[in-house]
Every structure is written in C-alpha cells, then in structure tokens.
Amino acid sequence: SQQGEEDPQALSIQEGENATMNCSYKTSINNLQWYRQNSGRGLVHLILIRSNEREKHSGRLRVTLDTSKKSSSLLITASRAADTASYFCATQDNYGQNFVFGPGTRLSVLP
Amino acid sequence: DTEVTQTPKHLVMGMTNKKSLKCEQHMGHRAMYWYKQKAKKPPELMFVYSYEKLSINESVPSRFSPECPNSSLLNLHLHALQPEDSALYLCASSQGPGQGYSPLHFGNGTRLTVT
Q1: CA A102 to CA B45: how far, in whole Å?
Q2: Which residue of B has its CA nearest to A31?
Q3: pLDDT tens for residues B21-43?
Q4: Which residues of A touch B97 (CB under 8 A)?
Q5: Mean pLDDT of chain B
Q6: Mean model confidence pLDDT for chain A
Q7: Residues in chain A with pLDDT < 70?
Q8: Which residues of B touch A103 (CB under 8 A)?
Q9: In terms of C-beta density within 10 A (0-12 exposed, 13-18 middle, 19 or more buried), how is residue B67 classed?
Q10: Could you tell me the maximum CA-CA distance found in chain B, to the nearest angstrom?
Q11: What DSSP character marks residue B98?
Q12: pLDDT at A2
C-alpha cells in the first residue's frame, strides 16, 4: 500500500539552484525518511526525521515535518548534476517494521 | 558499493523455470525485506522477516516463496512466473523491531525478466 504522496512527480532545474520536493502521508507515523535512487540501483537513505522534530539538516539537505498537515519537504541546496536521481519519502510505522514509500520525485539537474 | 549484496544482478527466466534470488547482509540487522519495483514506481513491499520469522506477507502470489535460512541470508524462490512479474527486486535490511528506529539499507537489486 502507498502512504506518502510526493510532488512534483518530476522536476528539472539548473545546477546551482535549489530543489524542493514535498511529501504527504495519511496515517500517524513514528518517523519519516527520505531516500535517493540512482537509475537501476538500490535506494540510499538520506535523512530521517522523527515525529517530534520539525526540521533537520544534513549537509546540503534540509527536511521539514509538519505532523498537523501530515506533510514533509526535502530541500536540496546548491544542486549538482550528481543529484540527478529519484527521491522517495517513506514512513515507518510505530512497530518499526513496515516502511511505506511514496510515488517519488524524479529530479534532473542540468549542467 | 552497498553493505547488502544481491545476486544475481540480472536474471532472465522462462515461465516454467525455477530460480532463486539471494541476499546477504553482515551488519547484524535482524529484519530483512523483499521489495518489488516496476519502472518509475516506488518499491512495493512483498515480505518482511523479523528475527528470521516471516512477519509480513503483503498478499504476494504463491509463485514467490521467501526463505530466511539465518539472520544474514534471505532468499526469494521463483516458480511459474508471469511476464508481468518482470521488475527490479530489491532486498533491504534494518536493525529490526525493538532495536530503535533505523533506516533501510538496500542492495542494488536483481533485474528480473520473465519471457
């Protein structure tokens, strides 16, 4: 089953610009995670934000979480061509076992 | 390189064949997962093993049969597949319930084509 919904579905930007992706979900969560997937490869975990956190930073990544709106955003600053990938949000249930992925945003960073 | 190793990387099989996908991790994780991913779609959960016991089966057809021989290994046995089963099959692991909330670590997948 699919919980998170990302928008936009696809995003094209120039190198150096910022990229913002949004994710919405439906049920209560313990945490929300963002993953990156390069074409034909496995997913790589980027950042985890817990339900009692509102904002988190990691390098060029900034994640926000609004539990009242059941939404999250991922901001990538100063994008690079190497950031070209699909980005997925995933929610983890309170038992810590089931991860449900959103449909993803395909990001293209043009040199 | 990932810490979760999947073999083979590519597999082509006929509808009458029997094959197996293999996954191995040595991070001491106690939960292991099989996901199926079609092109331009998110991963869809198939099975979860927690402490070597099957804990989640997302109504997957019986032509897919998972097996967890030990805490480091996960297999997916395939039999009488259909062309629509062609997809990228991803294995993942996490610390497991009761170990805190941890992310998934994915392998690079097996690209399966059913002819």
Answers
A1: 12
A2: B101
A3: 999 999 999 999 999 999 999 99
A4: 95-97
A5: 93
A6: 91
A7: 1-5, 94, 96
A8: 41-42
A9: middle
A10: 43
A11: T
A12: 45
